[in-house]
Amino acid sequence: MPLSLAALNGLDRAGFVGAIGHVFEHSPHFAAAAWERRPFASREALHAVLCATVREAGPDAQLALIRAHPDLAGRLARAGQLGAESTGEQAAAGLDALSAEEAARFDGFNAAYRERFGFPFVICARENRKEAILAAFPARLAHTRDHEIATALAEIEQIAWLRLADAVEP
Question: Which domain holds residue 48?
Answer without folding.
Answer: 5-59
